[in-house]
Amino acid sequence: MNSEKIEIFDTTLRDGEQVPGCKLNTEQKLIIAERLDKLGIDVIEAGFPVSSPGDFHSVSEISKLVKNAKVCGLTRANKKDIEIAAEALKYAKRPRIHTGIGTSDSHIKYKFNSTREDIIERAIDAVKYAKSFVEDVEFYAEDAGRTDNEFLARVCEAVIKAGATVLNIPDTTGYCLPEEYGQKIKYLKENVRGIEKAILSCHCHNDLGLATANSIAGAINGARQIECTINGLGERAGNTALEEVVMILRQHKDLNLHTNVNSKMLNTMSSLVSDLMGMPVQPNKAIIGANAFAHSSGIHQDGVIKNRETYEIMNPEDVGVNESSIILTARSGRSALAYRFKHIGFDVTKNELDFLYGEFLKVADGKKEVDNDDLTLMMTALTRKI
Ligand code: KIV
Ligand code: ZN
């Protein structure tokens, strides 16, 4: 079976930038956008142009700069937002307007004080209006995760008729379980008339730590675009992490799904975004955390030194990390110690290792991590002993 492509829609510069303290200026956004384009992203959501003159300017400058990816601007379902987004995107080679409205009962009642019929009308009008400016219109049904499937299908059908090319099914509040979100996508695939004219997109938030799992469940059930951010940044607990989606699809060839992202750039991309946003990456973050390829317990270290496949399911080089690391702690064993001595140029014999291991344990019990300076001191002690 031929592998099918999943379009990667990056929203680091829009949903990611909504994180408190992560505001970027235009120059910083341009640096990130250029790198995202090189990374092989299909769609870059550059911002929400109506939200501020600064955001408008950034979207406009990104539109001029980006060579390959589609450039997308977010709007609410009203004329002013759409006109301003169209203006900001006018220099883009491949512009997309991303418009939409809340569809869950809670959004309809509390946000809009409205009715389901009115929401469908507003959705249709917004898509038609956006379509008068650009060919590529993505519609988001905000809070689709908590919208009942029958009504969601009616909304999808109506906006496809109005010209939407992509249907975004956001789990805005990160509430769904993977099985449930996957079934939602399957339901829409099977019940929306005209669905073959549009692609379904996953946009999952991470409030319960399920964003990536939900997005993958969506893709398995027929979605062909995943919306995500570098380092999983985004509102509250964040969005689906781009690096996780890319590596899951790369490692699980059995899914017959792939992306065009150059995974070898993931590590530097992550550092760039973290540095510019001033948002550190947690060390145990999957794929790009500092400990993602670090082994510190003796049993694991011994296995990895014999053959890295024992405890590694990915090659660190595939995500742009030179090599996995063997961290020396009080839990490390002789083979890790010998390995690290070799790494700094000392090939020790079995007898020497016995002595050095005793010295090592004395140091390791008093420290979180034993470093190369400690190893050099141990070698000096060994030389004195001889
Ligand atoms: O989470 C969400 O629903 C969104 C939409 C605006 C696409 O970010
Ligand atoms: Zn979102």
UniProtKB/TrEMBL annotation:
Keywords, alphabetical:
Acyltransferase, Amino-acid biosynthesis, Branched-chain amino acid biosynthesis, Leucine biosynthesis, Manganese, Transferase
Superkingdom per UniProt: Bacteria
**What GO molecular function terms would the record report?**
2-isopropylmalate synthase activity
InterPro entries listed in its UniProt record: 2-IPM_HCS-like, AIPM/Hcit_synth_CS, Aldolase_TIM, LeuA/HCS_post-cat, PYR_CT
UniProt cross-references to Pfam families, sorted A to Z: HCS_D2, HMGL-like
**Per its UniProt record, what Gene3D superfamilies does this chain match?**
1.10.238.260, Aldolase class I
Pathway field: Amino-acid biosynthesis; L-leucine biosynthesis; L-leucine from 3-methyl-2-oxobutanoate: step 1/4
Q: State the EC number(s).
A: 2.3.3.13
Name all Pyruvate carboxyltransferase domain ranges.
6-267
Does rRNA-binding count among this protein's keywords? Answer: no
Q: Which EC class does it fall in?
A: transferase
Identify its protein family. Belongs to the alpha-IPM synthase/homocitrate synthase family. LeuA type 1 subfamily.
> Which NCBIfam families does this one have?
PRK00915.1-3 (NF002086)
**PANTHER family referenced in this protein's UniProt entry, alphabetically:** 2-ISOPROPYLMALATE SYNTHASE 1, CHLOROPLASTIC-RELATED, HOMOCITRATE SYNTHASE-RELATED
- The name of this protein is 2-isopropylmalate synthase
The taxonomic lineage of its organism, from the top, reads:
Bacteria, Pseudomonadati, Bacteroidota, Flavobacteriia, Flavobacteriales
